[in-house]
Amino acid sequence: MPLAIEAFPRQVLLQVAHDCLSRSGLIEPKVFWTLPYDQWNDAVSSFAIRVPLESFAVLFRESPYREEAGMSNAQTRSEGVAVGAKAQTVDMKLEVVVVPVSDVDRAKQFYAGLGWRLDVDIAKSGQFRVVHFTPPGSQCSVLFGTGVTTAEPGAAQGLHLIVSDVVAARAELVDRGVDVSEVFHDAGGLFHHGDEEGRVSGPQPERRSYGSFASFSDPDGNGWVFQEVTVRLPGRADSLDASFTSSTELAGALRRAAAAHGEHERLTGEHDENWPDWYAEYMIGEQSGTPRPT
Questions:
Q1: pTM of this structure
Q2: If you ran DSSP here, which 8-state letter would residue 180 be given?
Q3: CA torsion through residues 15, 238, 280, 116, sign
Q4: pLDDT tens string 233-273
Q5: How many independent structural domains does the chain possess?
Q6: In a domain, 162, yes or no
Q7: CA 35, CA 111: separation in Å to the nearest integer?
Q8: CATH number assigned to the domain comprising residue 118
Q9: Do 23 and 50 lie in a common domain?
Q10: b vs e for 210-235, b when ≥16 Cβ sit within 10 Å of the residue's Cβ?
Q11: Cα–Cα distance between 51 and 114 in angstroms, integer?
Q12: Angle at 147 between CA 146 and CA 152, to 5 degrees
């Protein structure tokens, strides 16, 4: 039975996989840890395909890294059961994020100024008002108002907006008069820190997916972060649900597919008459994290 990677906590999985990989001889430990972040999942997945579920579960239970992660034997056993269980069948889609604000009209003006769509502004009384905005291309919306949350204004931090081009996204907001940080990446090559620790100016040098950011805040200090994502990690999205939410996003995907296809034709030395199929497979692979043609 193939191993469901997402059934294990990611950090524990990576640590245990390192231990397992070193035992199996499939990859040198030093090589594994020096792989770029966006290749870790490929390395782990490659290993998982070759190892039966039962064998991995045993190694998982025996691994000292499990204890470091604070997982009890009972938790480990439940994880092992979860691996073999059928995935949750009820869709649970994040619909709304509540943002605490002190001045509803000021917040409404700010989010409208971002170019976000105003969906709802309903006041039942002076003590209860609901304002609802949706960012372009997003299936999740933002809600704020009066009487909708007990959180302190400005308490919402690390709200991520996924964009296909962080430089262009930043430029658009700057043109709208929004104070946006410079584009940055993390010195460690992973997810950015909660503050400015490890922040390096400029996009991730190779423009690797997930690695480039820019941040801004609303008038109350609620913090937003642009994160550039062009290629999804394996298993991060359902290949059947791949879609493009704007012409800009689709155009960017087409350009990347065209560049990759040009390299494909250069290597094969011949014109590919089935380029539409090649483009489609490449673009779906980018979104879903499934293998892309080469």
A1: 0.57
A2: B
A3: negative
A4: 765 555 455 566 667 777 877 888 888 888 888 888 888 88
A5: 3
A6: no
A7: 40
A8: 3.10.180.10
A9: yes
A10: bbbbbbbbbebebbbbbbbbbbbbbe
A11: 49
A12: 85
